[in-house]
Amino acid sequence: MNLLFLGDIVGRPGREAVATLVPKLRAERGLDFVVANGENAAAGAGITGSIAKSLLDYGVDVVTLGDHVWDQNGWENEIGTFERVCRPANLPPSCPGRDHVIVGKSGFRLLVFTVLGRNFMGPKVDCPFATADRLLANHAGNFDGALVEIHAEATSEKQALGWHLDGRATAVLGTHTHVATADTSLLKKQTAFQCDVGMTGPHDSVLGREIEPVIRRFLDGMPRRFDVAAGDVRLSGALVEFEPTGRATRIEWLHLRA
Length: 258
Known about the structure:
24% of the residues lie in helices and 26% in strands. The chain has 258 residues and is α/β, with parallel strands linked by helices.
């Protein structure tokens, strides 16, 4: 079986890349599941109900979110209406929305959830390790494989979670930095891993934003509007092949120009 996980979708350029490439990839690669992080899909910060619906219509099976989950006004009132969208699982339990999604294909049930890292991150969240343990234990018997996204800044935290879940998750894949890492690997017990799969959006940019305002902010520290860039749009993610047992057999970093 095949799973494609897409890194942070940034703004309209990222959404258009998904619309163009995901249907083609599903057909060409025989994809069983497509999961995408949509936390930057609305003008580079957050997501809206209409955008979430469009991503699902483009062929994404599950939309995950990160630390910008609540950046768009009103999304907290919409998130609960989407069965295939999940907010980070280690946010306070009082937050709206699902903390996981289980999707099925050909009799295989895939558990999907995201945990936020705690190093160099803003939100105050529960331990990502304990949260992952809890979800895997609570849903034992209801899934055949698990995709765990760690949305975090520190590579050490991401690597540690990968090893912590080795053999218990089909894949542990990282997002948040928007810059892909060169550590695509199968861990010892057949869990696919990558610290960061990169972003889906404009790469002629600084993390998806127009270059000049970011440079000027670094030079003088003055606040500026960071609009989403437009050039060199690419789709970035990880393609994971796995057995019906849920054990990964191969992982490939996928990086395509739109």
